[in-house]
Amino acid sequence: MLANKDYEKQLYVAMQLALREYIGTYTLDELLDNKEDISNLVLEATKKVVNKLGVVVIDCGIRDVILPGDMKEIMNQVLLAQKKAQANSITRREETAATRSLLNTAKLMENNEMLFKLKEMEYVEKIADKIGEITVSGNGNMVKQLKDIFTVNK
What we know:
It is a single chain. The chain is an all-alpha fold. The protein folds into two domains: 7-66, no CATH class; 69-132. Helix content is 71%, strand content 0%. Helix 1 packs across helix 3. It is rod-shaped and about 110 Å long. It starts with 6 loop residues before the first helix and ends with a helix.
C-alpha cells in the first residue's frame, strides 16, 4: 500500500507541468503533427518526478487537443482566410490561362483573315441567339453590308 494517498493528484500535476513545458515550445500545427513525440517527451519527464511518489508510469499519450472558444474562432478565421487565398490563387491562374488563350487567338487572327472572319461570325451567331425578332429598314444596302461582313477581302 502506498504511504502517499494523494499520489494521483501529484501525478496529475507532474504530467500537466511536463505537458505545458513542451506544449509552450510548439505552434498549434506542430503540436497536432507531433502528438506522439510530445507524449514520449512528457512520459520521460514525468517518470523522473513520479519515482519519488513510488509510482511507475508505463505509458501516456495525447488524445485530444481542446482549444478555448476564442481560439477556435481564431482558427476558423485563419482556415477561412487560407481557403479564400487558395480560391483567389486558382481564380488568378484561370484568368491568366484565359488571357493567354485570347492572346494566342488574337495573334492567329492577326495573320489569318479567314480565321478573323470565322471568329466574327461566331460572335454574330451568339448575338443572333439572343435576338427574338429583327426588323430591317434602310436604304437597300443591307444585303451588301451583310455580304461584306461575311466575305474575306482578298
